[in-house]
Amino acid sequence: MCCDILAEGPGIADAAPWSARVGLELTFSTGARMWLAIATASADAASVPADVPAPPPLLPKLIRQDRMIPLLGAEVYLASVLQGAGDPQIRNAYAYSARAVRPRNPGIGLLLADGGRAYLPIAHTARVGQGPGRRPFEQLQELL
Known about the structure:
Blueprint: H1 2-7, E1 12-18, E2 23-28, E3 33-37, E4 39-41, E5 69-70, H2 71-84, E6 90-95, E7 107-112, E8 117-126, E9 142-143
Antiparallel strand pairs: 1-2, 2-3, 3-8, 4-8, 5-9, 6-7, 7-8
């Protein structure tokens, strides 16, 4: 579901499964790449945080004039693409960094229509021509 939705987002050139379907690999129109891990929790196991903000109603700008993509800007942008897709399976999408308590790692959270949750932390980032780093969760702050 997320691959199909994100592949349609403006500024996203490609979205594909990563590492035997445990995540997504995104390629932006600049050539920069991002890898998102995916974890889920059933409705029985999931608790909904009280501080889940709604993403902006309009897509925020992804790529700056200098062709850089700020990491936290990409996080908000991806949450907005997922929220704005109108997919009946997604009740709400939010950027981790938009919550009152800032997380250690950026990512996107999904509240699903069946009460379950999906967590998409940003595991790796890479500029054009680079591969993912050796250690997950050490992201570049700007992607070129």
